[in-house]
Amino acid sequence: MLKIATWNVNSLRVRLPQLLQWLTLQQPDILALQETKIQDQHFPLLEIQAAGYHALFSGQKTYNGVALLSRYPGFDLLTDLPNYPDEQRRVVAATYEDQLRIVNVYVPNGASVGSAKYEYKLTWLKQLSQYLQATLIRYPRLMVLGDFNIAPTDQDIYDPANWEEAVLVSPLERAALQEILALGLHDTFRLVDSPLNTFSWWDYRAAAFKRNHGARIDLILASTALVSSVTSCIIDSIPRGWERPSDHAPVVAGVQIN
DNA sequence: ATGGCAGGCTATGCCTGA
Predict the structure, then answer these.
(1) What distance in Å separates the CA atoms of residue A188 and residue A253, rounded to the nearest whole number?
(2) At what angle do helices A171-181 and A116-138 cross, to 10 degrees?
(3) Which of A49, A105, A214, A255 fits a 20 to 30 Å CA distance from A164?
(4) Candidate list A53, A106, A118, A139, residue with the active-site label
């Protein structure tokens, strides 16, 4: 059984103690991190290695930044979407044992519908879709996970009426996600028994976590070849209640690979 | 209707996040 996880840590520098604590508790085999906000030369590699993990990362100062932690080394590192030059560090992919390809994404937030950042989000998703289409041919065993900044359906946000047409739920970004799913990728949370009102992000403001005013925007997608191997997908909301938490909770999928 | 909290920067308010 492999435990494949994703967590937007909102600053790896600040969240390193919580990350090390969570690694001890959950012992994931592969963990995708987003919003590390740290340049590669400052990545806390020694602390991660001391915890028993390999690391691949693509960071930048202040914003964005992604990393893959793993029990076993990863190969064939990719840190850019092909034919899409972008200074923003939002993707890191690698191959692990049994030809399992892992793509970690930090999808742009989109600011507000119609803004330049929203257009960037849609363009980025289109580029991601093209890349994943090609990747699925080469790697039938594919998992795509990370902060998608999209709540797939109205079930995935606490108050759909209040969010109508806004970023995270707007029709165009949901359509872009559906296009990715239509390639043959499946939201693992919906492959298993999925309780209502389960979210992965809660605003820091207005006691949103306490009131469970959240959204499920952190996803773990599995390719069709892996669907029958997915045994669980849970959102571990406990670290969201720790001291000085990230605003996102980790998501963990169990995959039975023979 | 608005703003609220948190992180990072070279800042001591402003930008970004979602």
Answers:
(1) 7
(2) 10
(3) A105
(4) A106
Q: Which nucleotide is nearest to A166 (CA to C1')?
A: B18
pLDDT of res. A227: 98
Chain segment A45-98, per-residue pLDDT in tens? 999 999 999 999 999 999 999 999 999 999 999 999 999 999 999 999 999 998
**Cβ–Cβ under 8 Å, residues A140 and A179:** no
How many CB atoms are closer than 10 A to CB A87? 8
Query: In whole angstroms, what is the distance from residue A141 CA to residue A76 CA?
Result: 15
Task: Kindly state the tokens that stand for A79.
Answer: 């840190």
CA nearest to nucleotide B6 C1': residue: A204
Residue A148, number of CB atoms within 10 A of its CB: 27
CA–CA gap between residue A253 and residue A192 (Å, rounded): 10
Can you tell me which residue has the tokens 């970023």?
Answer: A167
Q: What is the pLDDT of residue A54?
A: 98
Reply yes or no on whether A147 is catalytic.
Answer: yes
**Bridge partners for A214 per DSSP:** A202
Q: Is A217 helix (H, G, I), strand (E, B) or coil?
A: coil
Q: Is there contact between A173 and strand B, defined as CB under 7 Å from any strand atom?
A: no
What pLDDT sits at residue A226? 98
CA gap A77, A95 in Å, rounded: 8
